[in-house]
């Protein structure tokens, strides 16, 4: 494969503040929603706590301490040759409760320093403004994004970021994997919703569906307002949406399986993409709302706001594909966000996620054909149980194989006419798992000495894949041996 990637292609990696930053409450930071989520090892599943309890382990409090190691970590990314680094800004580090009149200068200064390091190495930042966390005070006061009041608070937060960093950042993402709010398990993670209609604190699956879709509408309106604001502050800004692309194949060519796959893809992937890129709710969403008695409150002017604030590009995450079937007896497998039916034609990772590189190429085609805006593959990666050997080496040929196969398919998609701006591997350095709070589930090219209980030296070690990805970037995707 030769010269399939454009010369200005953005090779890099991606992380999130709540999974790697740490420095809980340091320098004026407030409590975020993720600071209230325990590790799965403590409760067998990750659990949301209304109050921070001393005898519960909350992995977001420490992460991998990027806050105090950002220079070392960015230097390692630069050594690999990163052209782009995707990360998120912690809202509660800028506005500790979300409702302050003025931002926290210490928080802004931290990101000043991060951007200065990136600029030193000519690394383009891709900044996610909201990556699965909000100030927890907004959950207590408004029930998170279910309350329309949060729109103005978020807009003020964005205005501060755009003004402060208008010369440091070009590419922005408003909400990470915004479509996760179509799933009941993501009510708190995606929408910061903790309380049901009676005002009781409950776990995510107990939040009524209409509350999730009301929160989603508020995020749609907010994103559109923020896109317009960004372009007014700096016309060179590029602001995108970000989807968790849930690639779902029909298990068979049975017509009912085909329709089930189509319906699942529409609601899970294209509802959010359509509103962000096209600027209006698609007909299938309106039909679903009517059929399921979901009556969201749309205020006067909201529809025009959505039309006026469409995004410049579409970013997406892709980890795997799943199958769907009308047969309830088919074997099911684990997955990212959703489980699904086992595909007999693909292999699985240590965590049961199906490995399907061709699915990435297919997904890129689906998104580009539908929206005709540039794409960024903002997340793609393999979580594995890596072993630190006695000589402090980590051999991870399985990660190299995963990378190689997926990069080949990206190159093919580009050669077939899909406009892809960049590829940021999820977890270039080991971070806390979003789904489980584990450290054992490692994605990085850089090993971090930390275990599932938060113990370890936090020392960084290069894995075998570090040098391999470095070679790939240096060759602009041409050397995949």
From TrEMBL:
Its EC number is 3.2.1.86. InterPro entries: GH, GH_1_N_CS, Glyco_hydro_1. GO terms for cellular component: cytosol. Keywords: Glycosidase, Hydrolase. One of its GO terms (molecular function) is 6-phospho-beta-glucosidase activity. It comes from the Bacteria. Belongs to the glycosyl hydrolase 1 family. This is Aryl-phospho-beta-D-glucosidase BglH. The gene is bglH_3.
């Amino acid at each position: 494969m030769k010269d399939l990637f454009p010369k200005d292609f953005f090779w890099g990696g991606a992380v999130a503040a709540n999974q790697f930053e740490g420095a809980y409450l340091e320098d004026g930071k407030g409590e975020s929603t993720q600071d209230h989520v325990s590790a799965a090892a403590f409760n067998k599943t990750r659990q949301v706590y209304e109050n921070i309890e001393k005898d519960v382990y909350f992995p977001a409090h420490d992460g991998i301490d990027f806050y105090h190691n950002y220079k070392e970590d960015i230097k390692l990314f630069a050594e690999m040759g990163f052209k782009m680094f995707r990360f998120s800004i912690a809202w509660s580090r800028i506005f500790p409760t979300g409702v302050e009149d003025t931002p926290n200068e210490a928080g802004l200064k931290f990101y000043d320093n991060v951007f200065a390091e990136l600029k030193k190495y000519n690394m383009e930042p891709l900044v996610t403004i909201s990556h699965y966390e909000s100030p927890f005070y907004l959950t207590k006061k408004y029930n998170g994004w279910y309350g329309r009041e949060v729109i103005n608070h978020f807009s003020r937060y964005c205005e501060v970021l755009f003004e402060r960093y208008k010369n440091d950042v070009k590419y922005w993402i408003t909400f990470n994997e915004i479509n996760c709010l179509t799933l009941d398990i993501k009510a708190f993670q995606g929408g910061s919703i903790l309380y049901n209609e009676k005002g009781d604190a409950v776990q995510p699956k107990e939040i009524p569906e209409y509350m999730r879709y009301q929160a989603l509408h508020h995020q749609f309106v907010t994103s559109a307002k923020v896109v317009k604001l960004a372009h007014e502050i700096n016309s060179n800004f590029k602001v995108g949406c970000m989807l968790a692309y849930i690639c779902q194949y029909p298990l068979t060519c049975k017509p009912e399986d085909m329709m089930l796959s189509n319906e699942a893809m529409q609601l899970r992937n294209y509802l959010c993409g359509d509103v962000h890129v096209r600027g209006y709710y698609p007909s299938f969403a309106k039909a679903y709302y009517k059929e399921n008695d979901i009556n969201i409150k749309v205020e006067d002017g909201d529809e025009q706001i959505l039309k006026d604030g469409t995004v410049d590009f579409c970013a997406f995450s892709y980890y795997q594909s799943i199958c769907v079937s009308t047969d309830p007896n088919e074997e099911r497998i684990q997955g990212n966000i959703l489980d699904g039916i086992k595909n007999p034609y693909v292999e699985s990772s240590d965590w049961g996620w199906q490995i399907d590189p061709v699915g990435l190429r297919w997904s890129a085609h689906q998104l580009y054909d539908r929206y005709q805006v540039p794409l960024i593959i903002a997340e793609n990666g393999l979580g594995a149980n890596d072993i630190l050997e006695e000589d402090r080496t980590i051999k991870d040929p399985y990660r190299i194989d995963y990378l190689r196969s997926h990069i080949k398919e990206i190159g093919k998609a580009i050669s077939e006419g899909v406009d892809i701006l960049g590829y940021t591997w999820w977890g270039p350095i080991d971070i806390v798992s979003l789904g489980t709070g584990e450290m054992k589930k490692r994605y990085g090219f850089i090993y971090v000495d930390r275990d599932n209980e938060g113990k370890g030296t936090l020392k960084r070690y290069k894995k075998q894949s570090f040098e391999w990805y470095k070679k790939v970037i240096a060759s602009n995707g041409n050397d995949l041996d």
